[in-house]
Each structure stands twice: as structure tokens, then as C-alpha cells.
Amino acid sequence: MGRKRGATMDTVDGGAIRQLRRARGLTMRQLATAAEVDHAVVSRLERQVQSDVSARALAKLALALGVPVDAVLTETFRAGAHPPIAELAVEIADLGALPERQQALVATILRAHKAAIADGAAAVGSATP
Questions:
Q1: Within this chain, do residues 33 and 88 fall inside the same structural domain, yes or no?
Q2: Is residue 48 part of a domain?
Q3: Is residue 79 in some structural domain?
Q4: HEC string of the chain?
Q5: What pLDDT score was predicted for residue 51?
Q6: pLDDT (mean) for 1-26
Q7: In Å, what is the CA distance from 78 to each residue of 11, 95, 105?
Q8: 6, 54 Cβ separation under 8 angstroms
Q9: Is residue 73 part of a domain?
Q10: Can you name the residues that pair with 54 across neighbouring β-strands?
């Protein structure tokens, strides 16, 4: 059975990718190699022929450019929710390859961890000197 394709993001700012790539002195092929995506994808994104990529590809492009994921998203998307940092986006995208039961376990662990962080922050905030 093949791997499930990750969610796509119709919010990639190809102009930002081109500007960031050029500022770093990278060719399209160098960026594609560093991000482990096909160079044709980079070309289509930069020419704004394509604006959708998997969350994993988006995160890898941002990592290869050394920027947070939101730096390569359209202004419309940036005005909304805060996207995860590139490293987290890659991990989230990889979770799609896990069986449902393992994904549910990871979700439970994350919820427990978030609750522990919130409880810790509340305890620190309520502490008196």
C-alpha cells in the first residue's frame, strides 16, 4: 500500500521563494536539492504557475531557505492562523504515513504535553515571591 499524500497548501508565495533563493545565491536546482523536491516544482512555484505543495515540501523549502514557513506563504494566509515552525511542520507531515492508531497515540501525547505546559505556566504565573 502506498504512502498517503499530505495535505496541500494553496498559499505559497512564489515571488517570496524566488527573492529568498536569489538573496542566498542559490540556483533553483540547488534549492530543490537542499529541500529534496523536484526542481520543476521550484520553477513552477517561482513562476506562479503552481501555488500548491504538500505541507512537507513547504516545510522543507522553508528549512532550505533558512526561514520560518510563514515567510513563503501568501499575505492572505499570513493574516490568518500562525503556521507551525518548519521543523514542526515536517514532523506533522510525516505523521500522515503512520497508521491511524499511532497517529491517535501521538495526538494524545501532544494533548497531555500541551496541558502540562499550560499547567506549568499557570503555576508560575500564580506563584508569589
A1: yes
A2: yes
A3: yes
A4: CCCCCCCEECCECHHHHHHHHHHCCCCHHHHHHHHCCCHHHHHHHHCCCCCCEEHHHHHHHHHHHCCCHHHHECHHHHCCCCCCCHHHHHHHHHHCCCCHHHHHHHHHHHHHHHHHHHHHHHHHHHCCC
A5: 84
A6: 72
A7: 9, 24, 30
A8: yes
A9: yes
A10: 8
Residue ranges making up the domain that contains 77: 8-97
Verify that 32 and 92 share a domain, yes or no. Answer: yes
Residues 42-73 have pLDDT tens digits of 999 999 898 888 888 888 999 999 988 888 88
Distances 103 to 2, 85, 93, 98, 113 between C-alpha atoms, Å = 17, 20, 11, 6, 15
- Would you say residue 12 lies in a domain? yes
Cell numbers placing 8: 496541500
Task: Report the candidate in 88, 126, 87 with the shortest Cα–Cα distance to residue 110.
Answer: 88
Co-location of 111 and 91 in the same domain:
no
The domain total for the chain is 2
